[in-house]
Each structure stands twice: as C-alpha cells, then as structure tokens.
Amino acid sequence: MKQKKQYTSIGILLLIWISALLTPRFTKGVIDDNMLPLSEGDTLTTSFVPVSWPATTIPVTDSLCRITDDTHSIESFFVALDSLRAGKDTVISVVHLGDSHIQAGHYSGQAMRLLQQQFGNAGRGWISPLKLSKTNEPDDYFISSVVKEWIAGRCIQKVKKTSLGIGGIGIQTESPSVNFDISIAPNNGAGYSFNQAVLYRGDKSMPMLPAGKSKESAHVSFDKGIHIPGILADTFHISFLTDTLQLHSTRRKQGTDTLLPASSFNSVYYGFNLTNGKPGILYHSIGVNGAMFVNYTDENYVRQLALLNPSLLIISLGTNETFGRNFTSQEFEGQAKDFIRLVKKYMPDVCILLTTPPECYKRVRVNKKRTFVRNDNTQRAAKALVDVARKEGIACWDLFSATGGKKSSRKWQEKQMFGRDRIHFTKEGYQEQGILLFRALMDTYNQTRENKSEN
C-alpha cells in the first residue's frame, strides 16, 4: 500500500514538471514561438528582465547617469521598446540630431549599435553624401560618384549654396550625367545590409535608375511629390539583402522615350534612408560640423525631419554656441526653446531627449603664448539646457554633470580621449559617450518597468 502511494506521488510530480515545461513563458524579452505578439494596449504580466550595458572607462556619477523626465514624456518610447522585446513586428525610428560630435558617427553609432543589439536592427537609417560635399563621413558606409564637381550647401551657411535636405546638407551638380554608388563598409558596417533605399532629392533633379549590378535586382517607385513641396523621395526595392546599390541618372521623361535637355534639370541630392525590412530600431544619425540650434530652426527643415517619423528625437547641440564671443545663457536658452517649440509644432507626438554637451577646452593667449583652459561656457550651456527641458516638459540627459561637471575635461584628457584641439574627442571617447547615453536610457527604462511590475 505504501509502495502504491509512493508511485502515485512520483507520478503527480512528473505531471507538474511536464506541465511547467510546456507552459509558454517570457525569457529576456523573447516570446515563445506558439504565442501571438502583444496587441496594442497589452502589457507583460511576467517579471521584467532588466537591460544591461557595457562598462566604461571614464568615471561617472551613477545617480546622474540617467534621464531626468519629471513629466514621463518619453514613456511612449519605452512602451514601443516593450513591444519590440515582446516580439512585435514593428520598426521604432530614432533621430539623433547634432553637430560635429554627431557627424563623425562614433557617438551616435555606438548608441545605435547597442540599442539594436537589444531591441533588433531595422537598418542603417539615414546616410548623407558627406564626402562628396568635401567633409568627413562616418566610417560604416560610402557614397561615391564619378562626378567630382559638386556645390555643397550646409545649414551653417549664412547664404545657402543649395537647398537642404534631412541631413542638413545638399549637393548640386550641373553635370548632364550623374551616378551614385552606395556601399556598406565591410567591417565597420557589418550587419547593415539593406533591401530598400529611399533617395531624397530636389523635385527638379534628374531621377535615378538602378544601374550596373543593381539593374536586374532592383526596381524604383518614383515619388509623386505629395509630402513636402520641393522634395521627392524615390524608393528602390531590392530583391535580396545587399551591401551595394548602383544608380545612374536618366533624362527620359517618365513613361516616354523623350530625352529632356540637361538644362531643364536642377540636380540637387540630399541622402538615403537604408532599411532591411526587419523589426527593430532604425537609428538616424544626423550631424553637421559647426551646427547650432539656430541652424536647424527652420520650418521647412523640421517638416523634412518629420518624414523620418521618429518616436524619439535626441538633440545633442550646444558646444558651438559656447565659443561665441558674446555667449549668454539667456540667449542660448531662447534659441533652444525656439527649436524645440518648432519640433513640437510639426512632430507633436515625438518624444524629445535633450542632452548637454561635455566639458571641453578652449585656446587662449597667456603671456603671448597659446594655451588650453577649460571652456567654462559649457557649464552655463548645460545648466541652460537642463532648465529648458524642465520648462518645456521634455526629457534631459545631463552628460556634463554625469561625467563630473566642472573640471571634468581633465578626466577626458587624462584618459587620452580628447582630440588634438581638445574640443572634439577620439573615436574611443565618442564611443564612451555612446555607451553612457545607452546606459542612461536603459537605466531609466529599467526603473520605470520594474516599478510597473511591482505595482
């Protein structure tokens, strides 16, 4: 009799164990294949698995390396991240807008990689023809052309040499024949193969057709010009994931064999948006050397930026303003407010994250010799941006304070993370900042999610 009871008990335990194995459960944000993705409004009912981040070299104040967001203004972005962790087939667009700290692509590129590793990679996003405009370009892509004579327009020019696109630049040519070869760098661009490319151009420019090796695998859908006057966005669909796309201009009138004269075109091109058709984060890095808030405060520009449909807009500006001879916190604060209010007007649903600039040096003459001193205006700019974020009800990440605040430039210098001018940083220095941005976002994300799971 006792032996029968023992067999019965063992049988019950086996049934419980088998049932537990067959019960679907969440593990690190991945759902069981047999479960449907979360519908809008659904929430995770299991325990939250926090996101981790890489270690950094630069000393930081842990309590300050997080997002300040008293109004919970970026909660909708965090909800979107929840949907990606739950396996929903969606793309979350992030725009990181800035100056030379962003143009190089190391700061924003590091944040992009980390977010995509955690939430999925939807593509490389925005790329500008920066080298064709005779300036530096991120090291994970190439845009080349046989045309060498380009007129370059930039948002920092008092009198713009060309019309400008989403990247804050434009390139124009009078050549009767234009080509573009787009390629992803084999090492630095690993993981950014694409099967769709959207070309943004002026409405009077020569359209492009697939050429060379891309001729058989790609086809184009021409924009009808319904979004923004003067801007066309042509979509190139590719039948497989690729690292290259070759394009060549055509002067044929669409739908006919009529060849239009070259003089009838005003060929201006702005850049490309590269995607891969997969769910995840689509991170658009947009920076222009020398840019300030006033350079982006333009209705036509902000309306173009809205075409990227960002869920989150990260704004990293302020360094260039601090080198102005007549810099004042009050004027700077007003300039930041003007841009943010314009963003709110044309992108009312976007979450805005304002970041403060890190401390840097400036060169001055002491006893007829040029030497470096800390640029104390960065401290004033950082405080002004923190105040702007609070008054405008948007989120802020205070990089200046998180990395030590006043005299923190010494830390960057001691770690050999400054460039020669001690304004810009080395690749490693920018990558540190990218990790810290990711950490600040994820630390805040973790906290809000853990609080919800507890409640």
From TrEMBL:
Transmembrane segments: none annotated. GO terms for molecular function: hydrolase activity, acting on ester bonds. SUPFAM superfamilies: SGNH hydrolase (SSF52266). It comes from the Bacteria. InterPro entries: Iah1-like, SGNH_hydro, SGNH_hydro_sf. Residues 282-431 form the SGNH hydrolase-type esterase domain. PANTHER family: ISOAMYL ACETATE-HYDROLYZING ESTERASE 1, ISOAMYL ACETATE-HYDROLYZING ESTERASE 1 HOMOLOG. This is Lysophospholipase L1. It comes from Parabacteroides chinchillae.
